[in-house]
Specification:
Blueprint (H helix, E strand, L loop, with lengths): L1 H15 L5 H8 L3 H9 L3 H4 L5 E6 L1 H5 L5 H6 L2 H9 L2 E3 L4 H4 L4 E3 L5 E7 L2 E4 L2 E10 L2 E6 L13 H8 L3 H10 L11 E6 L1 H5 L5 H6 L2 H9 L2 E3 L4 H7 L1 E3 L6 E5 L5 E2 L2 E10 L2 E6 L7 H4 L1
Parallel strand pairs: 1-7, 8-14
Antiparallel strand pairs: 1-2, 3-4, 4-5, 5-6, 6-7, 8-9, 10-11, 11-12, 12-13, 13-14
Helix pairs in contact: 3-7, 10-13
Length: 294
Amino acid sequence: MKKVLLAVMLIGFVMTGFSMNIVETAVSAGSFNTLVAAVQAAGLVDALSGEGPFTVFAPTDEAFAKLPEGTVEALLNDIPTLTRILTYHVVAGKYLSTDVVKLDSVKTLEGSEIQIKIMDGKVYVDNAMVSAVDIETSNGVIHVIDSVILPPERETRTIAEIAVEAGSFNTLVAALQAAGLVEALMGEGPFTVFAPTDEAFAKLPEGAIEGLLNDIPVLTNILLYHVVPGYYLAADVLKAGLLPTLFSDMTLKVDTSNGARIQGSGIIATDILAANGVIHVIDTVIIPNDDMCD
């Protein structure tokens, strides 16, 4: 019976989908009533009726019914959380099923990435199985999923706060404090920081750290050379080749010929997410040449 209903639903989509936008298509289907109500409550109707294109992984009414009792009602009274969840189901751009299966993950409008995997011939986005695909609309495409997917909990600490609490960046924190950069790295950003550990600073010649702490202009330049404006996850870093820094117009070179390295420093941990950016841990302090520091 479910297969018959699904077939009927898909026929209806094929007949009407291209002339209607994503929201109109969902409304006409009759199987996304909860999703439509949520989109209306969150004030996202106009956005999802816009030009796009968008790819929507759309949970059915049955998918919403799987949530614990009272969850839907609670979400309808918590618009910020509801909005995060809904935008986690939406991807900018049009990804047909043939595109989706080629991806390991894709970034959502919420800002986080959903994971894509194929198991036993079935496609999953996070923990939800894709039950129908390629429902094309005038402003994108809908793929139907059998569960509501939830974005990861958002980190509320800033880059500076994470570095302080980690316990392995004491020298870096002391340097940031001396250079008066702590407040900047608690700002909105986003920033990508290549953070040397205490062990990385310990590799410097004897007396170098003390010398830098007494030469604030040079110290500031070195620290800014470790900060990239923008949000670069590890995958983005590896694709970049060169990354701009906050130190003048200087760039950092990415090298993958012998492991992942940035300007000669080994990248030993990645994707430590912060409220205002991301931290990648490196094993050596990156020092600009003398002319650059002047």
